[in-house]
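User: quick one, sequence for these tokens?
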């Protein structure tokens, strides 16, 4: 009752414009008031007269007259029930707050500051330490000397002999380590291949040798390597990585990354016939750069190459005059020739003399680097030209794009 009565009184005190708007759309209080109103009297029954409008007020609408009559009727019902309209506006009194529980006293402190207790303050000045601090060390006095923090230990004892890193191994030691690593790799490869029937025995054997801590030609990147002259044969790419000849088992360009202000340079290349744009004549060849090739499926060029990574390193070789090691893929051979039935041959050092960027055989931009065999090396073997990968040959003959390089030997 109190809620909708307050709403009614506010409406009476509001301006005319507000009353007209609320008359057009009844408020929530008005809806509740209508629901709480008693049933309308039957026809002919006397109704309570509406209160007279004040003098000078505008004429009321029928709705406003009916509303005022209902208000007067509600007042009569409240008076009959003994309810006071003013008492409905009062809020119920709050319950008194609960008394707080007194805090427990703090325990007696075990240590107190002499300053807080009003006693004399301790002084750590040099004069207060007495004569003990001014005497040379080792002098015995009855007065105890002041305690000082222990001196920090030196990380390096100046009297200890200097520990220098071990010297690099000699070429004889490198050759002995290389032979041991190659023998272990062959043993692991054959054992894993017999046990699994293949299953990337090359990578598993490489991991086994690496777990033994055998590292060949560590720190040697550019130029010839001990124990591996031109003509050295390798049975797969993983064996090259174990020996330190070519340290990337998938990519054709092995390069030393930029470090300490030095630019990246290529160290070794593998010409395996995986690019249709290669032009190999033995002593000279145009080597196709890396990138944009579907190495794991069709082996065809599927996108343009960029001057980055190995391609950028080969360009730096041209500017710095640094030679690269070149290995060629011979192809599949009988088991008597190679335990992996594949063969790669190291053909010596080659100099990068030129490079160009052109549209390749598959209409994609490729980088091509001209390599010339360096002088002063043993004569090059016969037919030292990498054959095109058989997958590329088969695809070219199938779609009718075979050329001179795609001939079947």
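Assistant:
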């Amino acid at each position: 009752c109190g809620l909708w009565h307050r709403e009614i009184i506010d409406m009476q005190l509001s301006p005319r414009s507000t009353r007209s708007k609320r008359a057009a759309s009844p408020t929530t209080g008005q809806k509740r008031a209508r629901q709480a109103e008693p049933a309308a009297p039957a026809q002919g029954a006397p109704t309570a007269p509406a209160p007279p409008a004040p003098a000078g007020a505008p004429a009321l609408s029928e709705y406003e007259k009916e509303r005022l009559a209902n208000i007067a009727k509600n007042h009569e019902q409240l008076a009959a029930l003994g309810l006071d309209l003013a008492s409905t506006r009062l809020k119920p009194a709050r319950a008194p707050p609960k008394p707080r529980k007194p805090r427990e006293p703090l325990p007696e402190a075990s240590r107190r500051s002499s300053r807080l207790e009003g006693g004399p303050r301790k002084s750590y000045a040099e004069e207060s330490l007495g004569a003990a601090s001014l005497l040379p060390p080792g002098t015995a006095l009855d007065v105890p000397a002041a305690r000082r923090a222990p001196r920090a230990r030196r990380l390096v004892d100046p009297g200890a002999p200097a520990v220098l890193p071990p010297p690099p191994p000699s070429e004889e030691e490198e050759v002995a380590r290389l032979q041991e690593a190659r023998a272990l790799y062959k043993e692991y490869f054959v054992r894993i291949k017999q046990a699994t029937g293949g299953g990337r025995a090359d990578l598993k054997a490489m991991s086994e040798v690496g777990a033994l801590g055998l590292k060949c030609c560590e720190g040697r990147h550019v130029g010839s390597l001990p124990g591996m002259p031109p003509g050295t044969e390798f049975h797969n790419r993983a064996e090259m990585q174990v020996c330190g000849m070519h340290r990337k088992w998938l990519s054709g360009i092995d390069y030393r990354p930029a470090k300490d202000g030095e630019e990246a340079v290529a160290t070794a290349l593998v010409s395996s016939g995986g690019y249709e744009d290669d032009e190999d004549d033995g002593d000279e060849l145009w080597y196709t750069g890396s990138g944009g090739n579907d190495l794991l499926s069709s082996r065809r060029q599927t996108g343009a190459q960029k001057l980055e990574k190995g391609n950028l390193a080969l360009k730096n070789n041209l500017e710095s005059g640094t030679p690269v090691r070149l290995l060629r893929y011979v192809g599949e051979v009988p088991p008597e020739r190679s335990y992996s039935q594949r063969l790669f041959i190291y053909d010596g050092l080659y100099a990068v003399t030129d490079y160009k960027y052109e549209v390749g055989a598959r209409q994609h931009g490729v980088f091509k680097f001209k390599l010339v065999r360096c002088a002063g090396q043993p004569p090059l073997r016969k037919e030292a030209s990498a054959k095109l990968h058989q997958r590329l040959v088969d695809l070219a003959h199938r779609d009718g794009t075979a050329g001179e390089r795609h001939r079947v030997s």
